[in-house]
Amino acid sequence: MNLDINQIALHQLVKADDSVLDMVLRDSLLPSNNRVVQEMMVELHRVYSAKNKAYGQFNEDSEFANAFKRCRKGNDDFLSFTRRATARLRDELIKYPFAESGVLLFCQYRHLATEYLLIAFLNSCNSMRVDEQLDLSITHHLDINHVDIVARVDVTEWETNNESKRYLTFLKGRVGRKVSDFFMDFLAASEGGDTKKQNRDLLQAVDDYCAEANLDQEQKQAYRQQVYSYCNEQQQADECIELKQLSEALPVFNEKNLQQFSTEQGYDIADSFPVDRPTLRQLTKFSGSGGGLTINFDALLLEKRIFWDAATDTLTIKGTPPNLRDQLKRCLG
Fold this sequence. Notes:
two-stranded antiparallel ribbon, alpha+beta, 11 helices, single-stranded RNA binding, cytoplasm, Nucleoid-associated protein RINTU1_01310, double-stranded DNA binding, 37% helix
């Protein structure tokens, strides 16, 4: 992977017995050409790129953003910037009951033609290792695969496009008050758009477009699969859905492409927006749960092996999976 590290710093917050968060600050930057450092950042970039992200922008009075601007102009050095930022995060984090120890990473790097600043709060995990004498010991490692408190600034976009509201990406919490809230408060940033709504609107536009074109079920599903393939490729490349690009890659019906149809019908779909994988998965799968029942099946099976009667709200399945069939046989004798 073509990833060039410019500057990288690590600091640590340690939760003491009295619930006070102590800081352990490095006195120097990590060596950017170190093999372990490079491998860690490649993995962190890969993991973060594969996750569903929300977009946002700094608030006008963001102390973090203003401090980084001074650093970019050469009025401050990167290490001092990260040390002060760590202190601000500590002050923000102690407001919450879930405050825990962790490693705070700041990395300024370039991937392809874009420069980034990535800030991540990493947890440590224990694991077992076997040494050369075949003795077991406990070792600590950074849990990069499960990182969920992280944000990244597209520095190139931030500095060249004053109108942009999507140069900052971050991960959102899933349930209740978002764990990531304190991180956004620390950055003094706010969300720039509803990613899920944009993806839901795209799905609705696709279905309405297929309906207007009078596509049969097989043609409709083939079209939906093409939409999903494009969006999946964009998500894997850590790129946004470009509505114009997507429309040009799809078949055209009734002399107007998907983007023209969306504009004509008044859909509020942005020209560019991030991928929300759980939402777009509905293009290829049907799923639902409730009342003790969970159903999940490929959309290609509809009207072939799976049939729905809307009048009676009855789903008929022809041909059950072998493991399910065995369970039913054992249960019913």
